[in-house]
């Protein structure tokens, strides 16, 4: 039996060679399909990192041949609901009016140049995230946007990714940067299509406000297509981030949609009318 030191050395050699996390090459030898040059058909990769780095040995999916999965929601399967029993929209209902305006705005976001920003405000279960995903997916399909050029991220996840890159920057053994705070910020600032979900659920600190402001300011200046969802009222956003609220209110760039009259439909799933 190999000694522990020998086993560890072999493990390190396998990691250096990129063998850890490898899966069977889905491209058969008889196939004419090209083999990914980035990962050599393994679909998994290992960054060449110093052994003391916290990400040493962690396998990651190759983004060249394993693009992000398509977004789960579509506009054409969004059915507005406005009662606890999942009844369809009916005339004369305030919630129905809000949903109708939201759907009209979603259509404009997909088909026209304005609005470039859409802010969806409402309570849990009002359909904000479904609409946001659907708009992003439909606009991406219309513009033939590659999946890697459209992103949905929760605000807290965005900030966690930024802080992780700040506290544990990734460089290869030659010192070349692979992941830094600036690189993460640039990734989201320059994303052609972005959904920033659940604004306001993150820990509200001076540092988080600075990162969010930097993200919003860059996308605002470049008129990048952006969809924001939040459980906060406009007044709350104004109180917490006055500079961000000012940009969200700019009618030349986008629109704020209120879905506060739409009740939470999730608990009613499976409930008989």
The Cα radius of gyration reads 23 Å
- Report the count of strand segments: 9
Approximately how much beta-strand content do the residues carry?
5-15%
N/C terminus separation: 67 Å
Model regions low in confidence, pLDDT < 50 over at least 5 residues:
20-31, 83-87, 269-273
CATH class of the largest domain reads Alpha Beta
CATH architecture of the largest domain: 3-Layer(aba) Sandwich
Helix content: 25-40%
Strand line-up in the sheet with most strands: 4-7-8-3-9
Structural class: alpha/beta
Largest sheet: 5 strands, parallel
Query: Overall mean pLDDT score?
Result: 79
Instruction: Identify the CATH homologous superfamily of the largest domain.
Output: P-loop containing nucleotide triphosphate hydrolases
What general form does the structure show?
elongated
CATH topology of the largest domain: Rossmann fold
Describe this structure in words.
Helix 6 (206-221) links the parallel strand 7 (193-199) and strand 8. The strands form three sheets. A five-stranded parallel sheet has the order 4-7-8-3-9. A two-stranded antiparallel sheet has the order 1-2. The longest helix is centred in the middle third of the chain and has 18 residues, at 94-111. Helix content is 36%, strand content 14%. It folds into two domains: 1-66, no CATH class; 75-268, P-loop containing nucleotide triphosphate hydrolases (Rossmann fold). The chain starts with a helix and ends in a 15-residue tail after the last strand. Mean pLDDT is 79; it is low at 20-31, 83-87 and 269-273. The chain has helices at 4-16, 94-111, 128-143, 155-167, 181-189, 206-221, 234-240, 242-248, and strands spanning 44-46, 59-61, 117-121, 150-154, 170-171, 177-179, 193-199, 225-230, 254-258. The protein is built from eight helices and nine strands. It is α/β, with parallel strands linked by helices and 273 residues long. It is elongated, with a radius of gyration of 23 Å.
């Amino acid at each position: 039996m190999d000694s522990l030191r020998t086993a560890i050395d072999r493990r390190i050699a396998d990691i250096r060679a990129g063998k850890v996390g490898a899966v069977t090459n889905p491209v058969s030898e008889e196939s004419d399909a090209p083999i990914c040059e980035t990962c050599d058909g393994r679909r998994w990769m290992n960054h060449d990192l110093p052994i003391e780095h916290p990400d040493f040995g962690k396998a990651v999916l190759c983004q060249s041949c394993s693009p992000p999965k398509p977004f789960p929601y579509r506009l054409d399967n969004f059915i507005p609901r406005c009662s606890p029993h999942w009844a369809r929209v009916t005339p004369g209902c305030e919630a129905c009016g809000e949903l109708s305006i939201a759907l009209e705005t979603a259509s404009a976001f997909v088909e026209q140049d304005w609005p470039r920003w859409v802010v969806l405000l409402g309570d849990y279960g009002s359909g904000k995230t479904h609409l946001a995903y659907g708009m992003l997916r439909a606009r991406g399909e219309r513009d033939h946007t590659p999946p890697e050029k459209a992103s949905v991220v929760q605000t807290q996840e965005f900030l966690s990714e930024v802080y992780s890159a700040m506290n544990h920057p990734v460089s290869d053994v030659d010192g070349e940067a692979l992941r830094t705070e600036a690189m993460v910020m640039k990734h989201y600032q320059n994303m052609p299509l972005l959904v920033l979900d659940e604004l306001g659920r993150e820990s509200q600190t001076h540092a988080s406000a600075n990162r969010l402001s930097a993200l919003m300011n860059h996308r605002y200046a470049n008129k990048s297509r952006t969809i924001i969802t939040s459980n906060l009222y406009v007044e709350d956003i104004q109180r917490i981030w006055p500079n961000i609220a000012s940009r969200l209110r700019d009618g030349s760039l986008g629109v704020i949609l209120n879905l506060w009259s739409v009740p939470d439909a999730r608990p009613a799933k499976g409930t008989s009318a």
